[in-house]
Write a structure and sequence with these properties.
The chain is built from 23 helices and 16 strands. The strands form 4 sheets. Strands 2-3-4-1-5 form a 5-stranded parallel beta sheet, with helices on both faces. It has a 5-stranded mixed beta sheet with strand order 12-9-16-14-15, covered by helices on one side. Helix 6 links the parallel strand 3 and strand 4. This is Dynein axonemal heavy chain 2. Pfam families: AAA_lid_11, Dynein_C, Dynein_heavy. It comes from Apodemus speciosus (Large Japanese field mouse).
């Protein structure tokens, strides 16, 4: 409810604007109710497509738009059997050299009334124009009334639009893990010779599968990379479980955990920190305790536990009693994780809406035209770009001291100067292009659209990755350049290093290790890091440490920090990130593995933890004291350090 008399004074649109300004995580709910009251509820409920009906037109292809963990093949086979088309159903997975088979199947299908299923069209994009022509022909000729063309493809910008326009499109959401029990038969449930043990571990496996599938709703706090875990992973693991329990008297925990989490589900996982999370979950659910403890709890909530030995119906009944929307705590997450993902979803919604804006503005009646707006923004950005740093002067000044840190400084100056030259040049060209003095090239057109939408043009974003909008990115650039300008003018390193300001922080950290190795006359390979979080205010840190460096400006996501006891604590409600105190990065010789009570916290360059194709986001693992909780608790929380935020 809006405070005071605001509720009566505002219409629905104005209400949404207030929510948009004050609570981005609630925008989706506002938009939903706005659509329901203005357009009707059918616009928010997915339509039911009855594929069994004979009304599907033979001329329209049916396209399955794939999402991770979904394979429509088995559902399609079942449908073919139901409708008596199994003997006339032909499936082909597209790829290299499959084009001639495709054409033959389609020709036969059109004439003889077959069902043709072409799977994974995104893997054969070069052949798509040919398919486009075949679909075009379908519209004019008269195919057999039983003919159906089914296609499946992951979303791809190069997929022909005309095929999409002519087709019926379906997308299936990845299945929820809990429906595995609905599909389970009595034979599957009772097939093991050790029924009590098997039923309990089967339930734990089912819960494990559901958690892995549904954790992706937390976006970056869920998985670094979204994986396509699917039903066949569960089936193989279920067979392994039954086989190993039949074979061995003692439960072979290590073998089961390795085969299920390491090989089977782990086969999808390519990120080391995601693998650590997977291992943490399986260790929780597959242990002697899960068999010996009655109603063994699978999360911090009392709702989720392994039910006592019973019939399949009793397990299904227990599952039906669980909440339809699993709270974050079921995954070992903090309620803030929901808020963070809802804010990201709201941002995606706005970006999509912006991208649908008409590209050509009508003749204006008051207000600015698109071109005037971009010219104004471009002039503003140009004015905020700092002066170039004197590279030659700095190089001469530091010529007598070729220390690793000075080498890093010169490299950073070169990169930032090149970036600022690129920005100024492209803005000057853009102004000329808008005024009609030069031709607007494709790259200038792209910069024009990015500036209008307040995004950073891809050409400028090549030097270092960032998710900030244009205005805060420009301010951030000025602060980054200032750090190196000050360092260069004083010809001595700062006391506190702002690590996020480096385009390549790993290069800087390696330089610090090299300096320490030279100082102590030892091999750089024998050094690793020790991390001491400062308990005093930055104003008290006036001298550099004897060895190593002070690093400031890191943000902690997925936890809070207790300055007094110098350890991790739960984040406050709605506190999505908190600024970390300065950390002393100290080179140490042959450090032992992480001590007990420590959490190895990954540090990422920017909020997109997976990074991009050209550059990883992960920089370094930093050991932090885990406080009252175990390190497993923070692993499930997705706790990490970020060098920069997206705002």
């Amino acid at each position: 409810m809006l405070p005071g008399g605001g509720r009566n004074a505002c219409n629905e649109m104005q209400r949404m604007l207030i929510v948009r300004s004050l609570g981005q995580d609630r925008v989706a709910f506002c938009v939903t109710s706005f659509i329901v009251s203005n357009l009707g509820s059918r616009f928010i409920e997915p339509p039911v497509l009855n594929m069994k009906s004979r009304t599907l037109p033979p001329r329209s292809p049916l396209v399955f738009i794939l999402s991770p963990g979904v394979d429509p093949t088995s559902a399609l086979l079942q449908l073919a059997e139901h409708t008596g088309m199994a003997h006339r159903f032909h499936a082909l997975s597209l790829g290299q050299g499959q084009a001639p088979h495709c054409c033959r199947l389609l020709r036969e299908g059109v004439n003889q009334g077959h069902w043709v299923f072409l799977a994974n069209c995104h893997l054969s994009l070069s052949w798509m124009p040919n398919l486009d022509k075949l679909v075009e022909q379908l519209q004019v000729e008269d195919p057999h009334p039983s003919f159906r063309l089914w296609l499946s493809s992951s979303p791809h910008p190069d997929f022909p639009i005309s095929i999409l326009q002519a087709s019926i499109k379906m997308t299936t959401e990845p299945p929820k893990g809990r429906r595995l029990y609905q599909l389970m038969t009595e034979a599957q449930f009772t097939r093991c010779s050790k029924p009590a043990k098997y039923k309990e571990l089967l339930f734990a496996l089912c819960f494990f599968h559901s958690i892995l599938l549904e954790r992706k709703k937390f976006l970056q706090l869920g998985w670094n990379i979204i994986y396509g875990f699917n039903d066949s992973d569960f089936e193989v693991s279920e067979n392994l479980l039954s086989l190993y329990l039949d074979e061995y008297e003692e439960t072979p925990w290590d073998a089961l955990k390795y085969l299920i989490a390491g090989v089977n589900y782990g086969g999808h996982v390519t990120d080391d920190w995601d693998r650590r999370l997977l291992t943490t979950y399986i260790n929780d659910y597959f242990s002697d305790l899960s068999l010996t403890t009655p109603s063994y709890r699978l999360s911090v909530l009392d709702t989720y536990y392994i039910p006592k030995d019973g019939s399949l119906a009793s397990y299904k009944e227990y599952i039906s009693m669980l909440p339809s929307m699993d709270p974050p705590e079921a995954f070992g997450q903090h309620p803030n994780a929901d808020v963070a993902s809802q804010i990201t979803e709201a941002r995606t919604l706005f970006e999509t809406l912006l991208s649908l804006q008409p590209q050509i503005t009508p003749t204006r009646i008051g207000g600015q035209s698109r071109e005037e707006k971009v010219l104004e923004l471009a002039a503003d950005v140009k004015q905020k770009i700092p002066e170039m740093i004197d590279y030659e002067g700095t190089r001469k000044l530091l010529a007598l001291d070729p220390s690793p840190l000075n080498v890093v400084l010169l490299q950073e100056i070169q990169r930032y100067n090149k970036l600022m030259r690129t920005i100024l040049l492209s803005l000057t060209d853009l102004e000329k292009g808008i005024q009609g003095l030069i031709v607007m090239s494709t790259s200038l057109e792209e910069i024009f659209n990015c500036i209008f939408d307040a995004h950073v043009p891809p050409l400028w974003g090549k030097v270092y990755p960032s998710q900030k909008p244009l205005a805060s990115w420009t301010r951030d650039l000025a602060v980054r350049v200032e750090q190196f300008e000050t360092w260069a003018s004083r010809a001595r390193p700062p006391v506190l290093f702002w690590l996020s300001g480096f385009t390549f922080p790993t290069g800087f950290l390696t330089a610090v290790l090299q300096s320490a190795a030279r100082q102590n006359n030892i091999s750089v390979d024998s050094l690793s890091w020790e991390f001491i979080v400062s308990t005093v205010d930055d104003s008290n840190l006036v001298y550099p440490p004897k060895d190593g460096v002070w690093v400031r400006g890191l943000y902690l996501e997925g936890a809070g920090w207790d300055r007094k006891n110098s350890c991790l604590v739960e984040a406050e409600p709605m506190q999505l990130v908190c600024l970390m105190p300065t950390i002393h990065f100290r080179p140490a010789e042959s450090r032992k593995k992480s001590a007990k009570g420590m959490y190895s916290c990954p540090c990422y360059y920017y909020p997109n933890r997976a990074g991009s194709a050209d550059r990883a986001s992960f920089v370094i693992g930093i050991d932090l004291r885990s406080g009252a909780m175990t390190s497993d608790h923070w692993i499930k929380r997705g706790t990490a350090l970020l060098m920069s935020l997206d705002s």
